[in-house]
Specification:
Layout (H helix, E strand, L loop, with lengths): L1 H15 L10 E8 L7 E5 L4 E5 L6 E6 L5 E6 L3 E6 L4 E7 L3 H4 L1 E5 L1 H18 L3 H5 L3 H22 L5 H32 L11 E3 L4 E2 L8 E7 L4 H16 L5 E7 L6 H10 L5 E4 L7 H5 L7 E5 L5 E3 L8 H9 L3
């Protein structure tokens, strides 16, 4: 009898033992967005593979989707703004935020919350390093730059080590590798910023250009516009952020029409696309001095200003010297503040 009871207990225990769960070969992403925007879906973009997932958002702001991932990955999550999202198969992650203030309201719950909460810490930590003007950090002298960077890295790794027990090991390894690359990038950018400050600092003579095609006929050189301030917009017809600035630029041009300042737009379009450039000037009713650079983004003038992305705005004084090699955009209130500080 005792043996029968023992056997019965063993059978019962065995029957109650849970089978090990097989990891899912997909991730579930769901949540709610406050202040939902009409006709906008939640988009996840992988910058390494250029692949995207588009998740439908209903009129109440709810969304849910199942994503099959080839490997763990970082995504740019886009909905009225951008934040970084880490996903891997077997995650079930709830994401909630207010689209008008994502940074302040973004929350994560479920499998994957620890990794994504760490990314929130990382984003805030990097913002603290850069401050209001990242060029000020990159332009520090050697000793101050090294001290600031080392403290940033020490604090980052301390937080990562503290959280390692609850973070996925693949995520931890990726974060360590990414931060090593970040350090290399900052060192390289620091050296370049010192070069930029030496060549393009306030009061330095501006790099020059000659004989750019003028929309109104003939060619023009930078020296032709000495005697007044010159606000330069480096743009292109294919550049969406450049086109976004056009209405703001028109407004500033109108407000300062009778002041001692000229507004110059230099297109980085290819010379072969001259007609496309001319058509947009006409279609958009662009004003000011409209010039076409001689070799697109590789024009020497653009390279001398270390322009890797556009739009870029430059302000020169009446003597042709640099006021700001990276001036505020027309859409920024800081531009008028700068103009007013110069009594333009």
């Amino acid at each position: 009898m005792r043996n029968l009871i023992a056997i019965a207990i063993l059978v019962l225990v065995a029957s109650c033992k849970q089978e090990p769960q097989i990891p899912k070969d997909y991730a579930v992403v769901h949540g709610t967005i406050k202040n939902v925007k009409d006709s906008i879906n939640f988009r996840l973009y992988n910058p390494e593979t250029s692949k995207s997932f588009v998740i439908e958002v209903d009129e109440s702001g709810n969304f849910r989707d199942t994503l099959k991932l080839e490997s763990p990955a970082m995504f740019n999550a886009v909905y009225n703004n951008i934040f970084v999202l880490y996903l891997q198969n077997d995650m079930d992650l709830k994401i909630d935020f207010d689209s008008d203030k994502i940074k302040e309201t973004l929350t994560f719950q479920g499998n994957g919350e620890e990794e994504n909460n760490f990314l929130k810490f990382k984003s805030k930590h990097v913002s603290g390093l850069f401050g209001d003007d990242y060029k000020a950090y990159l332009g520090l002298n050697e000793d101050d730059f090294n001290k600031t960077t080392d403290k940033f890295l020490d604090d980052f790794h301390s937080e990562l080590d503290k959280k390692a027990a609850v973070l996925d090991s693949v995520f931890v390894a990726k974060e360590k590798a990414d931060m090593a690359e970040f350090k290399k990038s900052m060192i390289a950018q620091h050296q370049e910023q010192l070069e930029i400050n030496a060549k393009l600092g306030k009061g330095k003579p501006s790099p020059d250009f000659k004989d750019y095609i003028n929309y109104n006929g003939g060619t023009s050189s930078l020296a032709d516009f000495r005697g007044s301030y010159v606000y330069i917009d480096v743009w292109a017809t294919w550049c969406i952020p450049c086109i976004y600035e056009i209405p703001f630029l028109k407004k500033v041009e109108k407000e300062y029409a009778d002041k001692n300042i000229k507004f110059m737009s230099i297109s980085a379009d290819q010379p072969k696309d001259e007609q496309k450039w001319r058509d947009m000037i006409k279609d958009k009713d662009l004003h000011g001095i409209q010039l076409l650079a001689d070799n697109a983004i590789e024009s020497q003038f653009l390279m001398d200003y270390y322009i890797y992305g556009i739009p870029r705005f430059i302000l020169l004084d009446p003597q042709g010297n640099i006021v700001s090699y990276d001036a505020p955009r027309p859409s920024e209130d800081r531009l008028k503040e700068l103009f007013n500080s110069l009594n333009i």
